[in-house]
Amino acid sequence: MSIQQSEVLYTAVATAENGRDGRVSTDDGTLDVVVNPPKEMGGSGSGTNPEQLFAAGYSACFQGALGVVARKEKADLSGSTVTAKVGIGKNDDGFGIIVEISAEIPNVDAATARDLLEKAHQVCPYSKATRGNITVTLT
Predict the structure, then answer these.
(1) Closest CA to 80 of 103, 48, 46
(2) DSSP state, 90?
């Protein structure tokens, strides 16, 4: 389900110069980074890359969604972490990405953790945006 323009609460604005081998910055100046292809893709690897930026955003957003779900379920998330691994590789259309979201939730049992992950995956905006477009695995 999409949102209408009138429902937007915040809009992030970032501008890239020279694509995957340049720099990316936000309009408010809080992010200004050099981007380079990773060594595994023939680049220098001296800067960050779009996959790292996507992994950072997805893991933070998913942790937030996990918090929303945990509050409803009255589950203890203290000490928890969420890690996103974003892989890029060739596919039939050129290139595509694949994501693995893993969470460490020390204060709940494995079944509860799995349930929380599944529910967070349903409400996380990044998960909604990628659903049906890329493979996302939860562990």
Answers:
(1) 103
(2) E
Q: Check: CB of residue 120 under 8 Å from CB of residue 128.
A: no
**What is the third-level CATH fold of 1-48?**
N-terminal domain of TfIIb (2.20.25)
Task: Report strand pairing: 22-26 vs 94-104.
Answer: unpaired
Q: What is the pLDDT of residues 77-88, one digit of tens each?
A: 999 999 999 999
Return the amino acid letter for 60.
Answer: A
Does the global pTM surpass 0.90?
yes
Phi then psi for residue 51, to 5 deg, are: -70, -40
* % of the chain with per-residue pLDDT over 90: 94
Tokens describing residue 98: 């694949």
- Is residue 63 within 8 Å of residue 79, measured between CB atoms? no
Rounded to 10 degrees, the C-alpha dihedral 120/105/103/83 comes to: 110
Class of domain 49-139: alpha beta
Which alpha helices (DSSP H) does the chain contain, by range? 50-73, 110-123, 125-130
| Angle at 88 (CA atoms; ends 23, 67), nearest 5 degrees | 85
